[in-house]
Amino acid sequence: xxxxxxxxxxxxxxxxxxxxxxxxxxxxxxxxxxxxxxxxxxxxxxxxxxxxxxxxxxxxxxxxxxxxxxxxxxxxxxxxxxxxxxxxxxxxxxxxxxxxxxxxxxxxxxxxxxxxxxxxxxxxxxxxxxxxxxxxxxxxxxxxxxxxxxxxxxxxxxxxxxxxxxxxxxxxxxxxxxxxxxxxxxxxxxxxxxxxxxxxxxxxxxxxxxxxxxxxxxxx
Amino acid sequence: xxxxxxxxxxxxxxxxxxxxxxxxxxxxxxxxxxxxxxxxxxxxxxxxxxxxxxxxxxxxxxxxxxxxxxxxxxxxxxxxxxxxxxxxxxxxxxxxxxxxxxxxxxxxxxxxxxxxxxxxxxxxxxxxxxxxxxxxxxxxxxxxxxxxxxxxxxxxxxxxxxxxxxxxxxxxxxxxxxxxxxxxxxxxxxxxx
Lengths: 220, 193
What we know:
The structure holds two protein chains of two kinds. Chain A is α/β, with parallel strands linked by helices. In chain A, 34% of the residues lie in helices and 25% in strands. A ten-stranded mixed sheet of chain A has the order 4-5-3-2-6-7-1-8-9-10, sandwiched between helices. Chain A starts with 21 loop residues before the first strand and ends with a strand. Chain B is of the alpha/beta class. Chain B has two domains: 108 residues, Rossmann fold (3-Layer(aba) Sandwich); 74 residues, no CATH class. The chains are: A alpha/beta, B alpha/beta. Chains A and B meet through helix 3, helix 5 and helix 6 of A and helix 4, helix 7 and helix 8 of B.
């Protein structure tokens, strides 16, 4: 099987994405990177795929509230959140509607994140979701907790894990919060990149990588 | 065996017969060192040790205490804890890299050591890969794409990057198991501290 990630951008190369592909979603602040990633995740939930979110900013319950509003009749047993906001120690819980939530002590606690992702994937698979989509929002926060060498390696290891688990991953990064070298290096850990910009009052995106030439900018 | 490339395995085990059995199983492929207590184990430990087989229940320093000191010294070795009973704790949360329940069979011991050596190999490949990606980005920022096509250093970097991508995807079967995944991330945490 392949993943159809063409909603909402409409790029041909996103209609059948190979399992194990990992895509960087890059753009300046306030250009809707997270919204785009969650829109793509929600489209998977409508197809009964698993949805796994790693958040460094919003609380797990805020993420879940937002996500419920995106998908009608959401099967929450196929939703998992790894909340890295660092309130309290490592722990996990299940919401009344069946979503799995794992708390990690900080966005720099990579071992805790690894355990959270492992348990989430296991829970989603036990609930019938053998394939699924992952969204991480955001790498920029991780880069304030740890250096780019560590974040690069983390992205590579996570990509490899999703490759063998058959997931697709979407990772947001604020393109203006880091120097060019950092963006160039982090990019190399991914199979492709969706770049977003505000252009003369409209929001535009283009796709780079995923075994194709860069696309033209397209409004969305 | 004393070849510099031969991996070094340190056995920390207070029962001499058990330690001797492990040594016989492993000495054909590795340089084996022996320690009969936790204290002796710490003395034998240095940069050349790749894998430690650590008995959990020993008189004097326990396996858990030895492990803590190994982590404090930030030594680049992998630790397999040897326990008498199936651990009742969540093994993912513990600081060791693998565990083995007594009695251990020969192929089980060998597979564990090989897996831990593969993890070290993976870490080394990932470090080299990262360094080259940095170098590639630096060259790309300094030169035009026309200059880069003719630049030998750049082409060599790119070739090696392609090669490493292939090696990384086959070592540990591309991080196929949960244990390898978490242990690799733990390794990144340790380096970061």
